[in-house]
Amino acid sequence: xxxxxxxxxxxxxxxxxxxxxxxxxxxxxxxxxxxxxxxxxxxxxxxxxxxxxxxxxxxxxxxxxxxxxxxxxxxxxxxxxxxxxxxxxxxxxxxxxxxxxxxxxxxxxxxxxxxxxxxxxxxxxxxxxxxxxxxxxxxxxxxxxxxxxxxxxxxxx
Length: 157
What we know:
Blueprint (H helix, E strand, L loop, with lengths): L1 H13 L1 H21 L5 H26 L26 H17 L2 H40 L5
């Protein structure tokens, strides 16, 4: 279990950490240092709330993958059990929604077009990955259980 927990931490750093942390930082690092030295505007407080909500969702999902699924968020070490509890009762993909909330918060905080374009491209990539890679794997791995879940819970929201 300890090993699985460490793997989950590693994959959080490597996957959401890069997608919603390192790349956005590289895209806005010049503007970010200026923004952080100015008083926050109203939209930046909303941005922080979205970011924190996204962070909470991501960590909730990682915990569910670890506890209920006996795996990780990464396709490299997928879950052994279909995760359908917690936020997965309302969306089949709350992890991606959490990452998109992180990115939306960053876009709103920094108000840069390049970060907005990046966030849109990330969502398109997420959608294509879910439809063409993840859903077929889940159907193959969990069969009828996944089909039932798929008919009960929406893909996004």
